[in-house]
Amino acid sequence: MTTILCDSIAADAWRTSLQWKAYDRIVVLTDTNVYREVFPVLDWLNEFPVFVIPAGENAKGLEQVERIYQKLHEFKCTRSSLLLCVGGGVVTDLGGFCASTYMRGIDVIHVPTTVLAMVDAAIGGKTGYNTAWGKNMIGTFHAPKAVWLYPDVLKTLDQREFYSGLAEAWKTAIMLDGALWIALRSNPLPNNWLHRTAAAKRDLVETDFKEKGVRAWLNFGHTIGHALEHFLLSNKQESLLHGEAIAWGMLLELNVVYSDIHPVFNELRDLVEKHIPAPKLQVEDIPAILERMQADKKNAHQKLVLAVPLGEGVGGQVVEVKVKVVEEILLRWINRWK
Fold it and tell me: Which residue, among 50, 57, 15, has the nearest Cα to 35 in the 3D structure?
């Protein structure tokens, strides 16, 4: 089981344990923004060799993977070494992938520094990097030994980054925990829900690590959301942050499967429209967005596969839908966003 620690005292105790001392090398991977903003807060990280990659989704490609491998080699890492990934989802995804494949696998611990990474990207062992034809098309499953949550570092985030991450917490709560969904809507302060959200995802994932069943519920919002995110990024338009794209993806996928009669639809729509910027899209963008959805690795039988909640915090279902239905919903929302 991945250990989730949500305070500095517990993490400090882990770092003095025999398990920590068993590693022959400990290397830190981070990005330029986190190195500037977070390392002064978590100054103990400077005890170790640090490799800094560029910040942002554009860095999540094969070029950086090769650079990380090279650095692990230069730092003389072995199968008994540890990679400590300090950052958001790009760092934990890339670092997790490199840890899973360097010398056929070394241990990794994540120290996520964004809400999104704390409640989603750092939890569950999915790793990967982006290609020209989609997000996370190359990847592995590699569970971190531990995930350390330091709520204090969230003070370095702006409001947009905060709500982007909160959207992934909405997803987990809507799927798995109705009481958490109520708490997130009424009190967005992290100390009230951070550990509970991360643990809810971890506990589900550990029943279905390779995503053959219930773990697929957590793809809620991702078929449409990834397509929106990748289209905007690849066309160099004003892009959405990952959690922002997933927020709109959840809303549209509910709309596709349930119209607007799902019990959380109105509450989610109000939150998303209040806190998440709308994507700037034109009707003529729809074919390219659909093309990206059809390339999604979750699809089957020439249909789009969506994971949607059954109710409020009671689990989900995976359904196949026709491309034409999604096209109609996209058209409706693009006209609404104008």
Answer: 50
Q: Do 222 and 314 belong to one domain?
A: yes
End residue of a domain, out of 157, 175, 205 = 157
Residue in the block written with tokens 């899973």: 100
Range of the domain at 52: 3-157
- Alpha-carbon Rg for the chain, nearest whole angstrom, is 19
Return the structure tokens found at 330: 């996209």
CA dist 192 and 32 (Å) reads 29
pLDDT in tens, 33-70: 999 999 998 888 999 999 999 999 899 999 999 999 99
Residues 276 and 196 in one domain: yes
Phi/psi region, residue 184 (left: phi>0; alpha: psi -120 to 50; beta: rest), is: alpha
Q: Report the C-alpha gap between 308 and 217 in whole angstroms.
A: 7
DSSP 195-234: HHHHHHHHHHHTTSTT-SSGGGGGGTTHHHHHHHHHHHHH
Same domain, 7 and 101: yes
Distance CA 152, CA 9 (A): 13
Q: Are residues 149 and 167 in the same domain?
A: no
Taking residues 170-184, report their average pLDDT: 95
Q: How many domains does the chain have?
A: 2
